[in-house]
């Protein structure tokens, strides 16, 4: 233990921000005058900190075995300095491990398991999420088209960016897979005049969007369904499909089936915009340093991230042609810090909401978990441990004469100009 403590003291001295550490026996390490303070009641948590297992330290904070004082931004700066290895370089899976991971993924992503996992996260409390999301409750990466945008403006810019990429037109049959609290679904209907269908597994989100549809008089051309994407059956395929912040929940074992389902639901020539978190590492099944375990346990049970190259491989295997891919990783770092700062500013309200709904013990744990999750994810996107890709794909018609350009085989004009300049840029 002495060697570990010496190593920890040396690491603390290298941290860009001061850190005061109090051990279970009352001994102190680090900067005694630091604003960031960690009081350990558990020796194993001290070992985790010394070993750079910051995700396990986070779990100890959630469970009340480590008391935290200080800002999330200070904590993440210190956490990055205390890491021993890049979390994307740890634990590359061997051949047999990949087989086991796939088997575990297949068992975890049944219809009933996925429904429970989604409800665990998204049905925590609508009032809680409303405290730190934008007014539309868009719970995905914003798009800071200009540096001076507020979070609310950047979320609207993201919704419009997606609609532009999809070339949405009045009357288009539009599907939003994993529609959340309805931000994109309603934006597409109201701003672009589409006939919109959304699906979700969250009961809270379903009820919320149903209320908004009725309040805005959109019953005739907007609908929200409570069901799994694998269960959706339609008589007529959709012209355009968006999936935003959803395919992270699909699982590696289900990815080919997911894109095959999208292919079935999309008409020939139609467009898909798949927007989601991807892994920063090629081979690691989850983030190391205990970070992946923390997310699985407290935030997204069943969530699995794949490298963008793997996602594009599965997309192509399903018969979808990728025509444009954009990495919005820095935008998500800024989005997450905006969420984190908002939650930090309203901690007392958040605690009251969660305790009232879930009881003191679970409510307090949930608040600690989300504080660490939002700031920790901001750090992960800043450092490139995770990324965010928008992948635009088409279902080819198979006919060279179709499309704006001869050989296009789709609605896509094979020029990015329209995304930024509007329909007039299509020649």
Pick out its properties.
seven-stranded mixed beta sheet; S-adenosyl-L-methionine; four-stranded mixed beta sheet; Nonspecific Lipid-transfer Protein, Chain A; 17 helices; 427 residues; Rossmann fold; alpha/beta; single chain; 11 strands; lipid metabolism
List the helices and strands and how they pair.
Elements: H1 2-14, E1 19-22, E2 28-30, E3 36-40, H2 43-50, H3 54-62, E4 66-69, H4 72-82, H5 95-108, H6 111-122, H7 126-132, H8 151-165, E5 173-177, H9 183-192, E6 195-200, H10 203-215, E7 222-226, E8 238-244, H11 255-265, E9 266-279, H12 291-298, H13 308-317, E10 321-327, H14 329-345, H15 347-358, H16 360-383, E11 386-394, H17 417-421
Parallel strand pairs: 1-3, 5-6, 5-8, 6-7, 8-9
Antiparallel strand pairs: 1-2, 3-4, 9-11, 10-11
Protein architecture, described:
The protein is an alpha/beta fold. It has two domains: 2-85, Nonspecific Lipid-transfer Protein, Chain A; 106-425, Vaccinia Virus protein VP39 (Rossmann fold, 3-Layer(aba) Sandwich), CATH 3.40.50. It is 47% helix and 16% strand. The protein contains 17 helices and eleven strands. A hairpin with a 5-residue loop joins strand 1 and strand 2. Helix 2 runs antiparallel to helix 3 (54-62), helix 14 runs antiparallel to helix 16 and helix 15 packs across helix 16.
């Amino acid at each position: 233990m002495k060697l570990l403590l010496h190593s920890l003291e040396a690491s603390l001295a290298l941290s860009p921000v001061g850190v005061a550490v109090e051990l279970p026996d009352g001994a102190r390490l680090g900067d005694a005058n630091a604003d960031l303070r960690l009081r350990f009641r558990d020796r194993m948590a001290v070992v985790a900190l010394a070993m750079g297992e910051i995700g396990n330290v986070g779990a100890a904070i959630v469970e009340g075995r480590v008391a935290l004082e200080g800002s999330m931004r200070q904590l993440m700066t210190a956490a990055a300095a205390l890491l021993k290895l890049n979390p994307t370089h740890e634990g590359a899976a061997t051949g047999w491990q990949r087989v086991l991971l796939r088997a575990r993924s297949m068992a975890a992503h049944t219809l009933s398991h996925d429904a429970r996992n989604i409800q665990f996260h998204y049905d925590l409390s609508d009032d809680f999420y409303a405290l730190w999301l934008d007014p539309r409750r868009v719970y995905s990466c914003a798009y800071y088209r200009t540096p001076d945008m507020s979070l609310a403006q950047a979320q609207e810019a993201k919704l419009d960016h997606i609609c532009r990429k999809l070339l949405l037109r009045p009357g288009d049959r539009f599907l939003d897979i994993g529609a959340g609290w309805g931000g994109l679904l309603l934006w597409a209907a109201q701003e672009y005049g589409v006939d919109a269908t959304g699906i979700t597994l969250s009961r809270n989100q379903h009820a919320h969007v149903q209320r908004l549809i009725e309040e805005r008089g959109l019953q005739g051309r907007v609908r929200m369904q409570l069901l799994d994407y694998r269960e959706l059956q339609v008589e007529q395929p959709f012209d355009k499909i968006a999936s935003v912040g959803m395919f992270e929940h699909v699982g590696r074992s289900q990815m080919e089936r997911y894109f095959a389902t999208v292919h079935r639901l999309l008409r020939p020539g139609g467009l898909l915009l798949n927007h989601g978190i991807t892994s920063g590492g090629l081979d690691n099944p989850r983030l190391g340093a205990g970070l992946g375990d923390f997310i699985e346990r407290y935030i997204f049970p069943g969530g699995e991230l794949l490298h963008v190259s793997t996602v594009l491989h599965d997309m192509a295997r399903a018969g979808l042609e990728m025509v444009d891919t954009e990495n919005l990783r820095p935008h998500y770092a800024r989005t997450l810090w905006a969420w984190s700062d908002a939650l930090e500013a309203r901690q007392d309200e958040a605690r009251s909401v969660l305790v009232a709904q879930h009881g003191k013990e679970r409510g307090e744990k949930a608040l600690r978990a989300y504080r660490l999750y939002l700031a920790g994810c901001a750090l992960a996107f800043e450092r490139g441990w995770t990324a965010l890709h928008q992948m635009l794909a088409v279902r080819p018609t198979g006919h060279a004469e179709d499309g704006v350009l001869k050989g296009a085989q789709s609605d896509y004009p094979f020029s990015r100009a329209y995304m930024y300049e509007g329909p007039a840029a299509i020649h």
